[in-house]
Amino acid sequence: MLTREIIGDALRHERQSQGRTLREVSAAARISLGYLSEVERGHKEASSELLAAIATALDLPLSEVFGLVSLRLAEAESRAADNVVELRRPAQAA
């Protein structure tokens, strides 16, 4: 999973948990609705300035956004490592 996808997923989850629409958050962040949608879907890489604007619009400290992303990245890395270990195990005889 790409970092931009993890960031977008965390932002979307937070927006939806607040019951807010893309339109509301994009207006508060002063970015286009389409661009926010692209960021949330992991299709666009958000600059630090853009992330700060979105975090402010969501009333979240930027450090909390990065904390959420860090946790999700660690989970993704753990799952990837588990998959590698599983692939390396020899098949057991029946």
TrEMBL record:
Q: Name one GO molecular function term.
A: DNA binding
Enumerate the spans annotated as HTH cro/C1-type domain. Answer: 11-65
Where does the UniProt annotation place the signal sequence? none
Q: Which Pfam families match?
A: HTH_3 (PF01381)
Name listed for the protein in its UniProt record:
Transcriptional regulator
